[in-house]
Amino acid sequence: MQEKYPVLKEAEEFFFRGNEVGVLNSHGFTGSTQSMRFLGEKIAEQGFTVYGPRLTGHGTHPEDMEQASFEDWIRDVEAGLEKVKENCSTVFVAGLSMGGTLTLYLAENHPELAGVMPINAATDMPELAKNYKQLKSSGVRFIEGIGSDIKQEGIKELAYPQTPVKSMGDIMALMNIVRGNLHKVTMPILVLSSTVDHVVPPENSKEIYEKVSSQDKEITYLENSYHVATLDNDKELIAEECVRFIKRQLEKK
């Protein structure tokens, strides 16, 4: 789709070229690459190649997002995966929120991945489903945004102030696909979950951990961050855990 609005500063895609080990980083619903840049930089400091694509309709204007579909977002991460594969022989995927959902989608469809790291991934959001049911035929196009659920004071996520109602239907469709196929995830997985999250119920991470078929699976609880944990008090911990997980998988090869 053709976007009408320019890309916001700090919402641009990022690419750090490193060695033959690559990590695809996906941001979340209504958010931008700004939320994943710190993690990307920390992983890149270890010598790895990192790519953070901007999802269609994100990082510009809510009207652009309204025109995008979940199929666009799947295409974005599939294309991102191809880009990393062009440069790397071993690939990991990490994602926040809906980026975590897309991470799981890739895991379900690409058994060759070396490992995945979903962070507060969304697979079931009953409150959003209830709101969407009430709003979808109401003629309302936008509701208040869900960005910046961050515990640390003074930190702001670059996310839309409004959520397109139509897009709520898209994330629900994506979650339904991913949730129904969690058993197809077989590669090593590190689930990262905030114990307090006002956007995605923490039960999502528990269900992911329990339903994947991975023999090698672990869960790390983030006790000092809310939903946008990659910008919150635990951002260093997330980076450390992801790097540790990646290195552990590489040692096994």
Looking at the overall shape, the CATH architecture is 3-Layer(aba) Sandwich
Strand content: 15-25%
Helix and strand string, N-terminal first?
A: EEHEHHEHEHEEHEHEH
> How many angstroms separate the termini?
40 Å
Largest beta sheet, briefly? 7 strands, mixed
- Overall geometry comes to globular
Q: Output mean pLDDT.
A: 96
At the first level of CATH, the class is: Alpha Beta
Number of helices: 8
Count of folded domains: 1
Rg: 17 Å
Q: What structural class results from the helix and strand content?
A: alpha/beta
Strand order of the largest sheet: 1-3-2-4-5-8-9
Number of strands: 9
Ranges where pLDDT stays below 50 over 5 or more residues in a row are: none
Q: According to CATH, what is the topology?
A: Rossmann fold
CATH homologous superfamily - what is it?
Alpha/Beta hydrolase fold, catalytic domain
What share of the residues lie within helices?
A: 25-40%
Structural commentary:
By secondary structure, the chain is α/β, with parallel strands linked by helices. The chain has one domain (14-252): Alpha/Beta hydrolase fold, catalytic domain (Rossmann fold). The protein is built from eight helices and nine strands. The chain has helices at residues 34-44, 62-67, 70-87, 98-109, 126-135, 165-180, 203-211, 235-252, and strands spanning 14-16, 21-26, 49-52, 90-96, 115-119, 142-144, 162-164, 189-194, 217-222. It has a seven-stranded mixed sheet with strand order 1-3-2-4-5-8-9, with helices on both faces. Strands 6-7 form a two-stranded antiparallel ribbon. α1 links the parallel β2 (21-26) and β3 (49-52). The longest helix has 18 residues, at 70-87. The radius of gyration is 17 Å and the shape is globular. The mean pLDDT is 96.
